[in-house]
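Task: sequence design from structure.
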C-alpha cells in the first residue's frame, strides 16, 4: 500500500479521516485544507533557522538542525496525532509532500498509527482548487438593491430544493461598509478559495446554481477570476422591494449594534456620502433615528448598485412587502417558466 495519495484520493479519504498539516503556523494560517489540524514540525522562527542553514550550509547541515529541533517534540506529536486519529488512521500534508510530511508520517507509523501523505503536498491541492473555478457552472444571479433580503431569499430558494451558494457566508462579510458587523473574522484570500472550492465540489454541474449578485471583492477577499467571469455572463433575476421595506429590514439587521460600530461603518463611506449627508447620518445615529440613517445610506448604495451594471437583467420580480419565502417562490417559478429564454434548466 502506497503511503502517498494523489489529491483526489486524499480528499476522498479526508471526508472521514482527520488531516494533519505539519507546516508552520504562518503557512497554515495563510491557507489550508478545510478542517485540517495544524501540528507544526517547526515554529515560524524555527522554519526560518532551518531555511537559512540550508541556504548557507547545504542540505545535510539543515537536516541535522531540523532533527535537533524536532527530536524533543516527537512524543508530543504522537500524542496529538493519536488524539485526533479515527480508528488509528490520519492523513498528513506539508507544502510539497516532501520531507516534512514523510518524516511525520514515518514517526506516526512507527508509533502504531496509520498515516498517509498528500502526494506533492498542499501545492498540488492548491492547483486543484484553482482549477475548480473554471468549470462550466450553470449560474443564476439573484439581484436586488441593498436591503432586499437577498440572503434570506437564497435560503428559501435552497429550501425549495435548488442548489445555492452563499458567497457572503463563506467570506464572513456582507459586502458593504457595514458588512463585517456581527461576522467572524474574514478568512484570507487563499483560505476563502479553499472553502469555496470545497463547496463547489459538492454541486451537481448538470443543475443550475444560485448565487447572490456581488462585486468581485467581498470585504477583503475576492471571487476567483474563472468563477467571476461566469457570474458576469449569467442571467440576473432581480427582486425589487420598496425602499420603505428595505429601510425596515436594515434597521432590524443593524439596530442591535452600538452607535460606535455604526458610526465607524458610516465614516468608512464618508467621502462617497458627501459632507452634508455624512453629517446628517452621524447626527441621526446619535439621536437614535436609525431609519433615517438607513434611508440616507441607501441613497448612496442604490445609486452605486444601479450604476454601470455589466450584467444583463433577465427578469424582474416586484414585491410589495419584504417576504423572502414569497419572493423565492416567485423567482423560481419565473425562471422555470422562462428557462428556455433565460438559457438555464433546472
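Answer:
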Amino acid at each position: 500500500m502506497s503511503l502517498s495519495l494523489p489529491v483526489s484520493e486524499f480528499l476522498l479519504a479526508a471526508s472521514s479521516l482527520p488531516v494533519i498539516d505539519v507546516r508552520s503556523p504562518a503557512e497554515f494560517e495563510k491557507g489550508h485544507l478545510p478542517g485540517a489540524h495544524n501540528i507544526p514540525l517547526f515554529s515560524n522562527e524555527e522554519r526560518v533557522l532551518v531555511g537559512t542553514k540550508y541556504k548557507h550550509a547545504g542540505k545535510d547541515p539543515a537536516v541535522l538542525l531540523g532533527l535537533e529541533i524536532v527530536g524533543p517534540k516527537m512524543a508530543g506529536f504522537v500524542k496529538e496525532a493519536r488524539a485526533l486519529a479515527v480508528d488509528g488512521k490520519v492523513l498528513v500534508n506539508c507544502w510539497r509532500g516532501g520531507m516534512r510530511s514523510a518524516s511525520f508520517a514515518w514517526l506516526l507509523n512507527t508509533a502504531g498509527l496509520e498515516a498517509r501523505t498528500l502526494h506533492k503536498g498542499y501545492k498540488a491541492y492548491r492547483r486543484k482548487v484553482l482549477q475548480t473555478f473554471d468549470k462550466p457552472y450553470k449560474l443564476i444571479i439573484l439581484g436586488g438593491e441593498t436591503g432586499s433580503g437577498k440572503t434570506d431569499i437564497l435560503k428559501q430558494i435552497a429550501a425549495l430544493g435548488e442548489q445555492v451558494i452563499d458567497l457572503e457566508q463563506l467570506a464572513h462579510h456582507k459586502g458593504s461598509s457595514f458588512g463585517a458587523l456581527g461576522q467572524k473574522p474574514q478568512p484570507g484570500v487563499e483560505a476563502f478559495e479553499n472553502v469555496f472550492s470545497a463547496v463547489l465540489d459538492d454541486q451537481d454541474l448538470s443543475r443550475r446554481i444560485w448565487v447572490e449578485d456581488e462585486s468581485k471583492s467581498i470585504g477583503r477577499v475576492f471571487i476567483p477570476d474563472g468563477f467571476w467571469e461566469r457570474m458576469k455572463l449569467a442571467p440576473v433575476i432581480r427582486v425589487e422591494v420598496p425602499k420603505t421595506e428595505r429601510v425596515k429590514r436594515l434597521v432590524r439587521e443593524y439596530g442591535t449594534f452600538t452607535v460606535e460600530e455604526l458610526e465607524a461603518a458610516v465614516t468608512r463611506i464618508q467621502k462617497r456620502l458627501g459632507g452634508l449627508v455624512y453629517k446628517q447620518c452621524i447626527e441621526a445615529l446619535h439621536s437614535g433615528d436609525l431609519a433615517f440613517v438607513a434611508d440616507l445610506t441607501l441613497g448612496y448604495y442604490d445609486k452605486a448598485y444601479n450604476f454601470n451594471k455589466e450584467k444583463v437583467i433577465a427578469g424582474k420580480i416586484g414585491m410589495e412587502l419584504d417576504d423572502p419565502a414569497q419572493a423565492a417562490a416567485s423567482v423560481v417559478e419565473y425562471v422555470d417558466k422562462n428557462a428556455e429564454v433565460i438559457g438555464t434548466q433546472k
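DSSP finds 18 helices and twelve strands in the chain.
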